[in-house]
Amino acid sequence: MTRFTGVKQPDFDTMTSKHTEAARRLEELAQALHGELRSAGLDTSPAARLRQLAGRVTTQAEDLRRRQKLVHELQRQRITFGRSAPAGSFLEMPDGLEAAEGLLDGTLAGRAALKAADGDAKALAELEKYASSGGDAEFVKAFLGTLGAQGLTRLPGSLAAQLRDARAHGDAERVARLSSGGSKALRMLSAALARGTDPENPAYAGAGFLQQLVQQGRAQHKTGGTTYSGYQAQALIWRAHEGKPPYSKEFMETVGRDVIVYEYEQRKDEWAVSKEPLSRVFAGTQLPIIDLAGALGLGTLLRPATHAGAPGAKAQSSVIDDLFHAAKSSREASHALLNHTPPGWKKSVLDYLLTTRWEAALHTKDHTPFNDLLVTATTGQDATSQKLAADLTKILSTEVRGAFGKADSGNLELRNRDLLDRYTALSYPLARAISANIDQLSRLYLNHATFGQVTPQDMSYALLLATSNDAGFEALIRAQTEHMRAALDTVPPVGLNAANARRLGFTEADVMRFDLNENGRVDRTDVMQSLTDRTVEEASPFNHIVESRRQGMIAQGLDDKKADETLKRMVGDAIGLLPVPGSKQVGELAIGAFGEILGKSYDKLAGATYDEIARQAARHMSEHGTGLDKTHQTLAGNRLGVERLSEQMLSSAMLQKGLLDGLDLQDNSFASGTPPMIKPFTEMTPQEYSQFLAWARKNGGGSELLDHFSGAFRRTSEVDDYLGLQIPSSSGGGK
């Protein structure tokens, strides 16, 4: 909280001038004393101390002059508050110099914004000068305090009306000036609003300001003959947001939630009519509340260049779309908006947006803000993110289920293209939500558990939608790859016993659990059995992901034999050879083979989400050169790609757990030195890497593990059952 000091201006001016004079005279005295002491051959340190004192007084005098200048400017601009006392008249100013400067600049910027709202072109240009001050708390408080919720709502409304007028008169120069200046002003407003409505920020304007925003948002405003709701104007501020600082959960709880309720209240009767049979005959549609730029046909003229899209774009956004854009910048804000059921509603906001309101969302086709919001809200590892991910999965699964059926061939058939197309835009955020909860996918299919209200059958239909998106399919494959690597990392190393268990990150109970033949140590047979168990378990989620992708492609009449480029990349980069970040390299051959590929930056990923690990691992591999595995060039289908990826992971696990230690390396091109050791992978050629995989299959037991993986991976009967299909299992490349 800013503290204020009373200043009696005449006395303050006198004090400032006397300090300045004292500093000058002290400096002169120090110089004279130094000369006399030096001439007399005496110690000059007293003169040095006097000069230090003069320096301190000079600094104080300079500070006083800056304050004096500010006091005069604050008084001239009528910004400070005066008060009378028996001792005379006083002016109040903040104790801190920066706070005083913030008070001055914020007030002047607020006044410029108010003038710009009245159509003053010079004031709009003046406002731009304060763009860099938006991070100062005192500036923001003074700026918002001067502008007020009403002024903040009026400014974007006025800018939009002025732009429409300039376009109507063919004034290209004015359009360009208003578009550029207006976009910068809105971006500045958005940053200030985000800070000023966050209770954790020193610039917080108070809960009362949030309530005033709601009142102004619901009120009708008029500018230049144009009548609009306040939220239509405020929405332009939200859409201009650059993400930093993020909007707070308190903003979304008060303003954001009310915006959603307000639109429903305004549109519910029209939406109800649009669903009636007669209305459908006459092409009745659900129309959202369009923001003011869209309502006036301004396209993206009032958006920052980073948000504008293609030049001259005719984009139209709803008020809700713009709200999503602001809410996506913070997980807490996204949760506050979506994980809420308004009073009197039977649906949560997320459910309402995906069902009741979804047709209105299709009108603008502006899906990016909502998709980004969903990714932010559902990909965390906290309980709320997981709940929203489960809700999203359940709702979309229910919505798209009716689009599919069984064809005469026994494969999946698309029976309602329109129904599927309605939700295709949400396929990627759905895939990301499932990817972030890849553990739940395993639990559903391996243990027949539930994920929130999601059953295994629900997940199967959700995967049809999620895998229909190329980037979504990639996210799922990468997440399951990380999940399998993590599962393989739980396998004990050869030689684990009670004496070394703690050093290797295990317990004595683990030794007893993994020592299947009860000989007191975990030997090669024990490790192979544990690897086999994990391999079979991890094949099942891969099977559901890949078969869902395949069946979805068949249903849409697409070629299902071609391998997806994402799998080709992952295989080509040998992404499966990397161990889990932070894992111990127990096998003696593993230390050299992994070499510098496992650096500090990679180990720091321990504890990160699966999709983040996957992205970082891919980037790490690309830095060391791609194309380590040439098999990707001849992949004929996704199943072959996943099997090759699993071979990489299993070979890496065998190497890491010591299963390959002690095997004959003589005369192998992928080994070097005396005694021979496996070359670092980053030094291998594609041919040498392929020979290493073949050697591991033949000598290390990899062939047996791959057979177990393929047997579970290619058995599609469970997928067929969940989707109501009847397809015989096949070992073909596409199957």
Summarize the SSE layout with pairings:
Layout lengths: L3 E4 L1 H31 L5 H32 L5 E4 L2 E7 L2 H21 L3 H8 L8 H32 L3 H25 L10 H12 L1 E4 L2 E4 H10 L9 H26 L2 H5 L10 H4 L9 H4 L10 H9 L3 H8 L10 H6 L3 H7 L3 H11 L4 H18 L3 E3 L5 E3 L2 H7 L3 H10 L1 H10 L8 H11 L3 H20 L6 E2 L10 H7 L6 E2 L1 H32 L9 H8 L15 H7 L5 H4 L6 H14 L14 H19 L14 E2 L4 E2 L7 H14 L2 H12 L3 H7 L12
Helix pairs in contact: 1-2, 2-3, 3-4, 3-5, 4-6, 5-6, 5-7, 5-8, 6-8, 7-8, 7-9, 8-13, 9-13, 9-14, 13-17, 14-17, 17-20, 18-22, 20-22, 20-23, 21-25, 22-25, 23-25, 23-29, 23-30, 25-30, 25-32, 26-30, 30-32, 31-32
Organism: Nonomuraea mesophila
Protein name: EF-hand domain-containing protein
InterPro entries: EF_Hand_1_Ca_BS (IPR018247)
Feature tags:
single chain, 735 residues, mainly alpha, 3 domains, 3-stranded antiparallel sheet, two-stranded antiparallel ribbon, 11 strands, flat, disordered N terminus, disordered C terminus
Provide an overview of this structure.
- The two termini are 67 Å apart.
- The protein folds into three domains: 6-81; 98-379, no CATH class; 401-584 and 605-723, no CATH class.
- Strand 6 (404-406) and strand 7 form a beta hairpin.
- The chain has a three-stranded antiparallel beta sheet with strand order 1-3-2. Strands 4-5 form a two-stranded antiparallel ribbon.
- The protein is 61% helix and 5% strand.
- The radius of gyration is 34 Å and the shape is flat.
- The chain is mainly alpha-helical and 735 residues long.
- Residues 1-7, 81-93, 278-283 and 730-735 have low confidence and may be disordered.
- Helix 2 runs parallel beside helix 3 and helix 17 (368-378) packs parallel to helix 20.
- It comes from Nonomuraea mesophila.
